[in-house]
Amino acid sequence: MALxxxxxxxxxxxxxxxxxxxxxxxxxxFAAGGATDLLGRALAVELGKLWKQPVIVDNRPGAGGALGAxxxxxxxxxxxxxxxASGSMFTVNPFIYSKLAYSADSFELxxxxxxxxxxxxxxxxxxxxxxxxxxxxxxxxxxxxNFASAGNGSQxxxxxxxxxxxxxxxxxxxAYKGEGPAxxxxxxxxxxxxxxxxxxxTPLLKGNRVRALAVTGTERSxxxxxxxxxxxxxLPGFEFxxxxxxxxxxxxxxxxxxxxxxxxxxxxxxxxxxxxxxEQGMSPAISEQGKLVKDIAQESTRWKVLVAKRGIKAN
Length: 315
Known about the structure:
single chain; alpha/beta; 10 strands; globular; eight-stranded mixed sheet; two-stranded parallel sheet; 13 helices
């Protein structure tokens, strides 16, 4: 007589059909108001509709995303705690933090969700109205320009470092616990510039306290059509596109991560989500399953070189 399946060993299809049967938490490892947070809240709405369960955004800022990543890495691998990460948490942090409580191996890397260019911005008191003028001013006044970031190793930090390297400017980095507080100080003139996530900084441009000089994509952004690309504005070849990915603790079943992947693909093409991304200057970036592992390895090689060249350390 064949043995019956134990009640506690549900087959994969049953796990996927049963999940989720309670609220799901998406940990955003940066402060409210930044690009990751804004994307996470929009995504939570769409996934909540598909899952018929509340999807809660839990902001856990600090250490360039490392604190939030550690929380998720140590959470039960049951699909009820997910991480919405910025790319730099996996491609940069391993090279600038002497100790990290997580790595790419701590997670099931479900997929990229979205990507988007950055924008070089300055406080309105900086005497530069174009990128060429900013570079000329910075070279004539070394170490005068301080640039803000969302934290050591964040995409905003590394965009600033990459810009400094490409332009030959001597910039001083000032780390914050998220884009919200960073850009508040940019508006106040405490810091002079930031290479910011386009969706987080654009609303602040209306107050005339912050000026956009160049976007870092290969094309102009529909969100800022009058702002040239860095290449157009005098820094040929400079490009920086940030990305965000959804992950689960390692050991989460293939049934759950597979369902999450399928529902993520559906979520980003919903009219509300497509409109949101367009309004935020982002594009859907769902990758084939398994591709995110390769992307992280490839990008890590690039950032390892820049980190060593610029002597970047977080602790």
